[in-house]
Design a protein that fits this description.
By secondary structure, the chain is mainly β. The chain has 2 domains: 82 residues, no CATH class; 149 residues, Ganglioside M2 Activator Protein, Chain: A. The protein is built from 3 helices and 10 strands. Pfam families: DUF1091.
């Protein structure tokens, strides 16, 4: 955890002191705290793209024999000053802004700051010993809105114990979705209770209304258009992948990915 925290501090520092980037509301970067102590341990370079960089080095050492300090050096092979996308760092700051003191997000979202264009949803895999079938279809509803049809049949009673784990990744520099910024987990019951992305409106077309989840029943959701006003506010512009994973008693049930773009007109 401390390694991850140290890396986050370095990334945020690089973002804050970049002359090309100007923070915009609602983030306030004039931090001041006396509430806790933090003991950085070390930062490691896991990998870097040798097609773009000649080297990237981070050295952790003791400064004045007591303080943990860092030396950082890098050399680019190409000019990327106008191509380096720091949206992932903005997303990291956004994540910090919505966290509560207990580390869980505040899911009572309401936003009109940006537009979101869902692209598609894919079922990557599912556990055929626990599910009879699982289908997800993306299509154009009323020729303009991206909508989803969803159907599933469970082989066992999951009741109220199925959890959904979500991970947010951002597309960096037109490459693959490499940078994963945040992961959280909550139950299917909580998804409906909190009405995330308007899930409670799904009963307008279909019978998928939340808990309990019973076996040998055909659950379906049709013509579902996500309520974009119930997404978190202040998400930076960019293309995102939301990876959703169903979990039951530490066993993986299904894995799905939804792709979309956040933009401002």
């Amino acid at each position: 955890m401390l390694k991850l925290l140290s890396l986050y501090v370095i990334l945020i520092s690089l973002y804050l002191f970049s002359p090309e980037q100007k923070p915009r509301k609602p983030f306030s970067f004039q931090f001041q705290q006396s509430d806790y102590k933090c003991k950085p341990e070390r930062v490691e370079v896991v990998s870097f793209n040798r097609s773009y960089m000649e080297y990237l080095k981070i050295k952790t050492f003791k400064f004045n024999r007591t303080c943990t300090a860092f030396n950082f050096s890098l050399k680019y092979i190409i000019d990327i000053e106008n191509h380096l996308d720091v949206s992932a760092l903005k997303l990291l700051l956004f994540v910090f802004s919505i966290l509560q003191k207990n580390g869980r997000p505040n899911f009572k979202f309401q936003q009109n700051d940006y537009q979101c264009k869902p692209e598609r949803g894919d079922i990557v895999s599912y556990n055929k010993t626990l599910l009879e079938y699982l289908k997800l279809r993306t299509f154009k509803y009323n020729r303009t809105c991206t909508a989803f049809n969803f159907s599933v049949n469970y082989k066992i009673d999951f009741g109220r114990k199925m959890e959904v784990s979500s991970q947010i990744s951002i597309k960096w520099h037109n490459l693959n979705f490499l940078i994963s910024c945040y992961r959280f987990q909550l139950t299917v019951c909580e998804v409906f209770a909190l009405n995330l992305i308007g899930m409670r409106s799904s009963n307008r077309c279909g019978n998928f209304t939340g808990c309990p989840l019973l076996k040998e029943r055909h659950y379906h959701l049709c013509n579902f258009v996500p309520d974009l006003s119930k997404l978190p506010p202040f998400i930076p512009n960019g293309r995102y992948m939301f990876e959703l994973q169903g979990v039951y008693l530490s066993e993986d049930i299904w894995l799905a990915r939804v792709y979309g773009e956040v933009y401002r007109p």
